[in-house]
Amino acid sequence: MQIKTVLRRAQLLSSALVLLTAAASTTAQQPLRTLLVGADQRPAQSLDGDWHYLVEQPPARELYDGKGNIRDNGYALNTHPNISSGPHNSEYDFSTAPTLKVPGDWNTQDPTLLRFEGVVWYQRDFNVTPPTGNQPGTRTFFHVGAANYRSVLWINGKRLCDHEGGFTPFDCDATSLLHPGSNFVVIAVDSTRHQDDIPSVSYDFYDYGGLTRDVSLITVPAQFIDDYKVQLAHGPTFAANTAAARTVDGYVHVEGASAGTSVSISIPEAGVSITATTDANGRAPFHAEAKHLDLWSTTSPRLYKVELRAGTDTVTDQIGFRDVRVDGTRILLNGKPVALLGANMHAEAPIRGGRAITDADMQNILKMLHDIHANYVRLCHYPHDERMTRATDRAGILVWSEIPLWQRISFEKPEVYSKAVTMLHEMIRRDQNKASVIFWSVSNETPNNPDRTHFLTDLANEARHTDSTRLITSALIGPHSSGDRIVQEDPLMAALDVVGQNEYIGWYEGTPEDADRKTWVLPNKPFIMSEFGAEAKYGNHGSPNDRWTEEQQANVLQHQFDMIRRIPQMRGVTPWVLMDFRSSTRNIPKLQDGYNRKGLFSETMQPKQSVELVRKTYTTNPPVKPE
Ligand code: GCU
Question: Which ligand 1 atom minimizes the distance to the CA of 533?
Fold first, then answer.
């Protein structure tokens, strides 16, 4: 075993311990920080709405003491200046400061912050009434759906917790810091980029900063369900209409429970009603044969109400049951070969712009997917709002979910590896009960070198270890074609169940017609052409070879579909990209104006010519076959 892998395992152990010990260490220094599975299904006191904000330019001395430490005695104290007499003890005042909407990015709310990457301080007051707050027999968690990129939280002037990573939720036990009546919270969110971040300093999507997803208070009994997985049993093989095909299994974890605690699992419509018992770690595994179970699929996305109960705590969720696996070059859904016809999509709100966060945003995204007759979407390059995977669960759209490990990061650093593991664990934990999510992707377009391959091989194995019921993948780039034979030999493929292949023949390299001559030499695994396409400004017209026109984009896609049809291992396609999206690296005036224009739709959902082409192709002559 590689020295690095051993080191990484040690590091991994410590990072996993971070997530767990955050649980144990309710000692003086840090309240529990965890991720409550099914948080969006629990009753909660929403803190969404208008929050006061103050902007801090680098070096942000109210947050950082210049020695790498977080300051607890700056804006976190939320003091008010004594205007009438000097000297002023503090020269800031949240109470008279303007407000930003939460959830939401700050960039599209305040024009002066459109391109701001740095620290924004959020503050709001809120009332605590029982059972919320420091009540006997209960605990109150401060839930953040996501905050990009780094965030530090204080309640009533006391540090609560911090989090790194812009696209996954976290829950911090605020019980001891809350008191009945009026309380206040201050959150510093820092979207500054750093070399050792994930993603690192340069990436082709927008660095939307802020409290970008829901914020709330969730009160639970002292013993509560913080984690559960309820799914179809995943045996070595799958056969429809057998007992195995209606057997559910999983576990329920009860935080604070001693061994022998009883947990009930019921799925009324499937005739499941069982009890299980926790072990010494509070985990209660279960296994039960349902009387009847309609499996979730793209044509019948059946969700079942699932009720979990432990002591006085109850969680209810809507879960679909399905089996996904590979067999040679085929991808099997409930034992049947499936072809994935979709597109890539960033978490950007169609029409209004900014981060996609509302049910209406999700419906608009689904509408565009339906318009191209898609059964699949690659949510790139980071976990999207949970509303999206709830919506794909209901709509029967299969999902590729990915951590934001985009191109170059500090692969040589163990501390960056444990960051990637934490992001992976958080992504998996939030969506492990979403039937529509079938892929966990560990990266996008990373350089083929030994450090990277070791890092990502370990990460892929960690993903498989964490969730053996889904397929592990990554989007590869290259080899850039020298001549017409493209031989993919990337060593990372050995660690993947399904391989994503990105290529831009006809845009970044060659002409659209070059694709007609390409021969791809690929290993005997299922492949997805995970990115291909061309830029076109909506309404820009010309000949099929006039770049930046709708005609040229359609021409590129046409030749791509023809090329892909000739590659036997291809089981899926996702053109880059469903909708034009903001990127600070795209600055050709009149053509890009700060947008990547490879969308099939404009950022205001106007369909370019390619929409018709893709819809017709997906309905009448799909470029990939199930087998
Ligand atoms: C890359 C990358 C995308 C990027 C796209 C492009 O392949 O994965 O994030 O936006 O190409 O260049 O348009």
Answer: 13
